[in-house]
Design a protein that fits this description.
Blueprint lengths: L8 H11 L4 E5 L2 E4 H17 L20 E5 L4 H12 L3 E4 L6 H10 L2 E7 L3 H7 L8 E5 L12 E2 H6 L15 E5 L9 E5 H7 L9 H9 L4 E4 L6 H12 L3 E4 L8 H11 L3 E4 L1 H14 L9 E5 L5 H10 L4 E8 L3 E8 L9 E4 L3 E4 L6 E2 L7 E6 L5 E2 L3 H7 E4 L2 E4 L3 E5 L5 E6 L3 E4 L2 E4 H8 L5 E11 L3 E10 L7 H8 L11 E4 L13 H9 L5
Parallel strand pairs: 1-11, 3-4, 3-5, 5-6, 6-7, 10-11, 10-12, 12-13, 13-14, 28-29
Antiparallel strand pairs: 1-2, 8-9, 9-20, 14-15, 15-16, 16-24, 17-18, 17-19, 19-22, 19-23, 21-22, 23-24, 25-26, 27-28
Helix pairs in contact: 1-2, 1-3, 1-8, 2-3, 10-11, 11-12
Length: 546
Amino acid sequence: MSARPEISIAEVQEAIAAAIPDREAIVFRDRRFTYRDWNERTRRLANYLISLGLGCHTPRSALAGWESGQDHLALYLHNGNEYLEGMLGGYKARVAPFNVNYRYVDEELVYLLNNARTRAIVYHAEFAPRVAAIRAAVPTLEFLIQVRDDSAEPLLPGAVEYEAALAGASAARPAVEWSPDDLYILYTGGTTGMPKGVLWRQSDILFAALGGGAHASRESLVAAARAGSMKILPAAPFMHGAGHWIAFTALNGGHTCVIQSDVKRLDPADIWGVCERERVNFLQIVGDAFGRPLLDELDRHRYDLSALQILLSGGAPLNAALKAQFLAHIPHLNVIDGLGSSETGGQGSHISTKETGASTGRFMPGPDNVIVDEALTRVLAPGHEGMGWWAKRGRVPLGYLDDAEKSRKTFIEIEGERYAVPGDRARHLADGTVELHGRDSVTINSGGEKIFAEEVEHALKQHPAVYDAVVAGRPSERWGSEVVGIVRLKPGQAVSAAELIESMSEHLARYKLPKAIVFRDEIVRSPSGKADYRWAREQALGASAP
């Protein structure tokens, strides 16, 4: 087997910018940045960070997998060119940037920034009051970089304005030696527990999730970038992997990353309008939470989407009924469910077209994706009996930041090879596809049976009156735990809990059916569209049987 290529993200982007300097890299509102512009701005940010004394202090070879020898830069931003510049500028300074959920309250922010041992933060001005409120509680935080926005918030004491920092820094190549071992850090969403910082080598995440794919060398990547011609719009927040993975896939492919104008909320008219105006070829969304509002807008207005070739749902699969509706509106579309996780990168995909029809739940696994047995001792062959764990080998993370115990539990060895096992139950079918059953952390154990929340949610959403749904468990004297559905109905629709539960019996065994339904005006999700299972459990605990 040939040696795998080892390349840093900074190195790849410098080479691509040299190859296609005049092509547009990023389009955001009235700003249009070529690869030359993007390269210069990220160099300037890198040189500013280096001037602060930030960088890499301990080589990877001297560290355990869960340890970092680099300074950490928090990105507390909405989508925009500054977010992507913050990432690449950090990499060029050998600083490790990480994502901050802009919906966190003060207590959550303090936890995250301290957990990450944050030394610097780039934040939109509207978040300045919150940064000021928590600053004293994060003793490692030294440097504040404030991005101007429409909030009119003044510059915090001791902070530097982002554009001023870039203007005062050199546009020369930073005087550091980039390494494939330099870190990429992605914090998990924290919807089922406390956020964890997943540590990847840049070279590994580049090939696992950021567009490196099957390229055998830097030269191969650059050659492919020369031919890049797509307009790609990642609509998900960049503060989650689902969003910035696609943004960097675009940039590492020599394509143009287009950003919607309204980045503070999901505005379907804005997204479709930008797709029409910029002739977007590839739109990335996150599951039904994005899909339904976008379809509602297509029902109300017509858009010229003749350039749109791919609709990718990353981070959560699209319901089959919604896929069929997208294909009815845009018959030439390829609707793709892209499966991945913070701990694995890309895992698998499912493609629906007008010709093949729409379905959900089975995936074609990507390279090095396998199913391992319950005891985590061997890889299971396709067609195996029983359930296993979806696992990824080869290019996988180093560990969780400063957490040896969780690192050893998730990143294991089988016969001398490292695997990431993030906790998804699955079965490898004889035809080579993988049947995904869901994350073990949101599995409901009821009467000795394991019930997967995602499977029940899918059945709930089949009812024509249901707009959105999430499922959680609650304690039960009889069953130990029982299923509760939390449902948002479509406007003007009415259905009883009993009727809804009975309709699900067409799709599920009766033991999997909810024991109660809670109706809510909204389903709480993260900005990326993922279900907030802590909120769902709170709703389930207050539910009563029908």
